[in-house]
Amino acid sequence: MPAAALKPKPLPTQSTAKRPVRLETPCAPVAKRPLPAGRPREWYVTHNRRLKAMRLAIALLDSGVYLPDQARDETIRSTAELIGVHPPSDTTCHMVRAFMRYSR
Hints:
The protein is mainly α. It contains four helices and no strands. The protein has helices at 3-6, 41-62, 73-83, 90-102.
């Protein structure tokens, strides 16, 4: 019997499946800790924007969008709606594509 016949088929991704693949959500949210006090407001805004961009980048990768060119603003915003995150700004969408670019 050929070796290829013994290998199990990989699970379909968003791009190869006949119907959309459901995104997996974590079983329990991670316990939130307070952010350090005394930083400028801009630091908190940037920190939260990075966290949101990382969540969106992970959700896009899980759904089969692997290249930054595939992640247009509309795709990122529809993914945000799907995972229950407020619609991202243009800056956050740019940051999502940057995360996808530098993960390679």
